[in-house]
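Researcher: Structure prediction, please.
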Amino acid sequence: MKKTLTRSKTFDGDLFKVEKRLTRQATLPSFHHAVEFDYKRDTKQLMKILKHCTTAHMLDMDCILHFLSSYTCEQRMIIIHDLEYEYHYNLVDMILERPDSPIRSCVLAMLIESIELFARHFHDLLTEKSIGKIENDISKVLLEILLGFSNDDVQKFKETYKQLFENSVQQDIEVVYHEQTFLCNFLLQLLEGKRYDSSSTSATSAKYVVKSLYEATSDKSAIDKDTLMKIFTHDSFSQLSSIFDIYEDKYGQPILQAIQRLFSNPIELQYFQDIIEFTRSPGDYYSRLLREACEKTPVDYKTLIRIIIGREEKDLCEINLEYSKMYEHSADEIIKQRLDNREIKRLFIMLINGGEDITANENGSVRFDHANNSNPINSSNHTATTTTTTTTTTHTHLPGRKFSHEAFDKFVNVFKLMRSH
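Model: Predicted structure follows.
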């Protein structure tokens, strides 16, 4: 029988007793994970943490995040699968049942693969926009999620989205945008996943595009808007870079000025500007987004999670390097200044610095009450986003028996082979 955390009838009395036993201020435990990864041992350790949470009637997300922070993405996925396989704890579902908060979003991101993280964020944005929770335009953020995908990533993203939420992502985009607007079509073109991935370029084709753009006006153009959209969503980034370079070398002005003669909508222009910046340097693009997210009030944790956790394995080293060049200080400095939650701050700084915990000697404490990110069991204070996401999550009920580790070892080996491709 799958284990879940349930509130006892004497919850308030039990909670009072727990709080009396625990000091009001206590430091988080130091787990000291062994250098050699042993998923059986480490899964058992996480199970003990959750068992303690069951006893205390509180899901201590600070403690869970602290535990997960010392593992790579691949190791985390193995531990989470083994936790459900061997001990019947579905930690993803348990976290999804918590009220929406930065710590909940951060812990959830550590429990799933990056492609699922992006799918969930994409769906949340569309959902919140459709119910009027977000008034501002979301298309720039949707573009940010899709822009760094390879063709294979796009296909996996679409499959993951449909598996989680039943509808296809294309259908949901069309529902939110109501009609085939330019921005809607732009996103749908990116979701075709047909960008040329060759590093070679065609100088002849690039020169034709450059000439057509230079001669273009709002009334007459040798290259229409749909063709330009096709170029920006299907040409390889090396080909786009060649077009930008040839235009600027020949006419002595940024290519965005030529695009401005065709488009007047500032959001549409921002799309092209973001793709130009990403093409020039993905590190610069994500560094700017990271800084903007930190400087917002309140801090934009969702964007930070996508950049730091979502791109942990692929781009984070380059992003950190480019950030230092752009702003003359490291990314961890602005994280230290702007973030309040100690565990989120610690995790982000660790990931940015390649796993080194430079906050290990800093004093800090976590409260064992409602003020620390520990949530009472069966909390009903869900946001609209939480409700939407939870209802679309697939729940797997496991039979109440002990599984052999021999079988799970085979799963681990298959998982590693899948991750290596």
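Model: The chain has 23 helices and four strands.
Researcher: Thanks, that helps.
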